[in-house]
Structures are given as structure tokens and as C-alpha cells.
Amino acid sequence: MLLLLKDQITIMRKILFLSFIFFYSSVLFAQKNLIPMPQHLEISKQGSFPLKGNLTVGAGAFETQAKYLANQLESLLQTKVTLKKSGPIRFQKINNTAVEKHDYYELKIDPSGVFIAASTESAAFYAVQTLLQLVEENQASGSIPALEIKDYAKFTYRGAHLDVSRHFFTADEVKLFLDYLSRYKMNKFHWHLTDDQGWRIEIKSHPKLTAIGAYRAVTDDVKDSKLTKDGRYGGFYTQEQIKDVVAYANKLQIEIIPEIEMPGHAQAALAAYPELSCTGGPFQVGTTWGVMDDIYCPKEETFALLEDVIDEVVTLFPSHYIHIGGDEAPKTRWKTCAHCQEMIKKEGLKDEFELQSYFIKRMEKYINAKGKDIIGWDEILEGGLAPNATVMSWTGIEGGIHAAKAGHDAIMTPVSHMYLDYYQGNPQSEPLAFNAELRLDKVYSFNPIPKELNEQEAKHILGPQANMWTEYITNFKHVEYMLFPRLLALSEVAWGTSKPEAYKSFENRVIHEFAYLDRKKINYSKAIFELNGNIVSRDGKMYYELSTIKNDNTIRYTTDGTAPTVQSAVYKEPVVVDRTMTINAANFSAARMVGSVLKQDFVISKSTGKSIQLLYEPNEAYQANGTATLVDGVYGNKQYFKKNWLGFNGKDLVATIDMAEPVSFSNVELNVVDQNASWIYYPQAVKVYVSQDNQNFTLVQEVGKEVIAKSKGTIKLSFEKQHAKFVKVEVQHLNKIPAGSGGAGSPAWLFVDELSVY
Question: pTM higher than 0.85, yes or no?
Fold first, then answer.
């Protein structure tokens, strides 16, 4: 009997020990779902702080943040939260001179209370954001486990940008954008208020800027006809609305940096005041995207208006910075403008690039006199950098390197890692975006400090910023989709806790955060669950390989065009592609599909999978899957050029297909692109040749630009039946972009896909 009792006690001890280990592991896991991850987090074994019943918040040194926390807790917990001078949840100020870290705070939780110590108002706010995430995480259990956090920001500038010119978003939607930034400790909002397609800020001294400049007659999208809209489109923010948004941002510890573009991207302003141009106009507010040749003329009337604009802008925005653009300013008009050429001589300038530098420096001097500094896109480096300017490095990291080495501050926002208007998944399953790709892992991998800088130079890198350009983003739900979950990666990069080796851990935290986004009804991309498809050739056959970053899921697929279900075939090895077919595949977790369906159409012709040689190499940025791209049975998506298209700049496509043996055929078909705003043009001519020996070729058909212009992107050449082993296709590019078009005089791009032989 005694032996039995001892056995029972031993078993109970094991059960209790295992229960403790399970509980402690769950606690540890729960606290590690924070985004951004704190610099230092230590889980204690000292119990937990209860969330049930009435709670009291002691204001201490941070009354504003205490009130904010109390309101948030009441809403979250649906319980009464009292605000007093002291309480179990309390704030204390740390002597700022003793803290060298940016926005340093400490958060300690034990059974007796929650203790927040912060160096600044903003640090206290960030401590509250961390605490609120912990409350959400532990709400179901009714208590927060004891822990201690010591945290700070690596970068002083943690920014996000929103373009409201290409498409307009209401003041309330802008506030929502600010809410999203604040949860993840972002502290700068770059508000892109003026551009060719709309002037969005009320300027009382020049009312035509909004009366005329805020509205375009139509929206003519050359990339996707679904975005083309007839009728007046636009809107602007009154000064009262701007004051309200700025005050709202201030409560969230976010500095709003307004952007007033100059000297380029000015067509909306020129539509209102054409006398500020080189030609005198008339102009209309921009109806298409791209870079416009008409920009501000650097004459006294122009500077007078811009100074008036700055006078009103500085009264609305307490920000230390005014962003003045400075990017994509073609010198076409300046080169032929008598006034501009006279100014170059008068000021002893070398060329139009130095004239732009003169323009920027003059406006900087005026803005500096108002107690502000300027930020400009990295083109302000051209012709000489203004004395106190901060460079926003977007074309790459080189602009930031150049600025830092010259002793100027820089903000890192390269297109390669920080452009949120790019696709974040397979374009076939994603909403329309700019034709490039930026996936979550690439955002997370970004290091804002270039390795080329020494320790002293690196101090000039203020931090990163992600940009949301809205040519193809027409509503705020789409803004949310493009922002999430990439904002989460940005926040961790900006806070300074991202680590390449910890990406899988971060990815799990992102997936966990999806529950919060669902509760808030925030639209977000599930590309993290997406399948990747890859076409490979092996042993004379073509295969379709599927893979997923979530290896614990099951891939199921169909080949008959139907949607995959839990009954569909489980993917175990690459699928043979030997006929025209549609493969649909998706990730499944248990009996539930996660993410979107990957759909791939294959159209098989006599040239599919055959060997192909090119006379000229495609541009290194647009090589897709190499020469095989032209004969893989997959038609390119005209909204995304990085995949399934070969791009040539200033070169023809000359391709020779080895059919392996003589075959009979009477048709050749190819796909091309015409998107002039992106400098992409239809070819001028297409010729088809045949040969038996790859040496002597006979021309069998050709078509000119008149036929190609009517092709709608698919050029078909029919001829008498041929029997040959080699087929050569020559596609002649447009030599130079015509005058009056964006990029006039430059070599045109040629994009070609799928050479089909029937």
C-alpha cells in the first residue's frame, strides 16, 4: 500500500513538472510574438500580473501616455480602468542624460504591477505599444506573465511614405495609416502631397493650385484598361484638415514630413499657373503616369510662388524637415529655353544639372531661413549637393553612401528593398502592382547601413523608409494590402532587431499577427503561404516544380483546370508537362487551404522545350529564366516583366530555334508589349526564316509596324507549309523614342515572350 502511494506521488510530480514545462514554454512562446522584437527580453518565473477586475493606471511623469493606455485597456479588456496619480500600472521618467539609446524604455511586469520607465514621451508611448501587444497576447489567460524588457531604437528615422497624388485618400484614411505605423513604433510619415497628377494641399495665397490642380479630367492608365476612368477625379486637404491630421500624428509620436515636388513632377501646378513653365502651356493635370518633360522654369515668378507655398506649409507642419522632391526632372525644356540658357551663363553654371542644383540650393536657403531643413530624392546630388540637405536614397544605396561620405545625413529607401508598390507574391494571384517584386523576406533582409561606410560615416544614416506609390493603388483597402505584412518587416529593420538568421522566427510571428489583422478587418497579403512554380527541362522533357516556404503544409494540385481540394493529388515530385494544360496548386494545412491558388497555363507548340540561341543577350535586369523563357509554353503577364519576358534595350531579338529534327509548320506566333509610359514600344518589324543546316536561311514571312500596331500584343505570321529543322525569328526594335514622349531620343525597350511554332 505504501509502495503504491509512493508511485502515485512520483507520477503526480512528473505530471506537475511536465505541466510547468508546458506552461512556461507557452509563456515564453507567447511573449516572443512581439513586433518589433525588443532589444532585450527576459521571462521571469515570478508569477504573473492579473488583467481581470478593475485596473488602475498611475500617471506619474507621463500623464498623456497614462491616459492613452487607460483608454486602450478599457477598449481592449472591456473593463473599468481608473487613472490616478499612482497605481499598480505606473510610469516613471528616466534621467535622459544617463541614457544614450534612442527612445529607451524599460518595462517590468510582476505579480504586484506593471512598471514603465522611459527616457522621453515617445519612449513611454513605445513602451505602451509593447504592453498592449502583451495584453492582447495574454487576454484569454487573464494575466500577463512576469517579464522584464529593456528596449530602444537603433535608428532615429523610421519612416513610411504615402503618395496621395496619383490616387487620393481621405484625411480619415490617412489617420488609419498613421494608426498602423504607430503600433509598430514607426515615427516618420512622409506625405507626398504634390505631383503631376494632382495638387493635394490647400494654399490660400494661390487658390488655383487646388481649384484646378487638384483634379484631373480623366485617368488614362496605359498598363491596365480597368484603371482607366472617365470623368473628373481628385481631391485635396483643407488646411484645417491638415492641422487635424498633424495633431493626431503628434499624439502617436509621429512626425509628418510634407513633400512639395520641385522642379519636376509639377504638371498639376503648371495646369493652374502655366506661366511658371518654359513654354507657357497650356497644360492639363496629368492623366497618365510616368515622367513629364514640362517642369518648373527657374524664373522669379516660379520662386515667388514656391516661396508663398513654403510660407503656408511651414505654419501647418511643425516637422524639422520639408521634402522638396528633386527627382526625375528632365532637362528637355531647359535645354531649349532661352531664359534657362541665359541663367546658366549669368550664374556661371556648367549645364542644366548645375541649374537644377542652383534651383534646389535657392529653395533650401529660403526654407533654412524658416528654421527648417530640406530632404530631397537622390537626384539632388546631381550638379552639387545643397549645403544642409538630407538625401533620400531611392535609386539604390549609392546616393546614401555619397551623402554620408560628404558629411550629409541620408535616409535609405532603395527600390530594391523599400518600394511597397511592387508585387509581394505571384502576379497571377496578386492585385495589380508596379511590374517588379518585393517579397517579405527581402524587406526583412535590408540593412540600412552600407558596408562601404566607416563608423563615423555610418552615423549619417538616419534610418530606413518604405514608399507607397499609388499609380495602381486606387483605394485604401488596396493600400492596406500592399502595406501588410511588409510593414512588420520594415518595423523590425527600423527598430534594429532584424537578424537574417532569425527570419523563420520572424515569419512565425508574422503569421501569428494575422489574427490581430483579422480582428481589425485589415486587408493583407497571404503571399507568405504562396507556392512557387519553376519550369525545368530534364532528359528532353519539361517539368513543373512546386515548392513552398511553409514545409509543414501539404501541396495539392490538379491538371484539368479545376481548383484543388483536400481530395486532390498530393504533390510529391515535379509534374510532367507534355500537353496543353492548366496546373492549379495550393497549400493545405490539415483540411483547410491556406493562401491562394497558384495557376499556371501551359500552351504547347512544336517549339516548346526546344533548344534556342540568341544573337544578342537581353538586358541583365530582364533575363527571366534565360533563353528557355521563349519556348517554355508559358505566356508572359503584361503587368509584370521580371518573369516570363525577355527585355532588350536598344537591341533586336534574333532567335534561332533548333527543332531537333525537320518538322512541318505554317505559323509562328510571338507576344510583345506596348507600354510607352514605361519606354516600352512595339517592334517595327518581324521576320521569320527557315533553314535545314543553321547556315543558309530563307525568308518565309515578314510583317511591318502597321500590322503589328493592330496585333493587340500577339503577332501571328502565317505562310505556306514549311519543312525545316531550324526557325529564325528577327524582331526589330524601335531605335529611338519619338519626340513628345517620355524618354524622347532614348533607345526604346523591346519585350518579347513565347515563340510558338505551329
Answer: yes
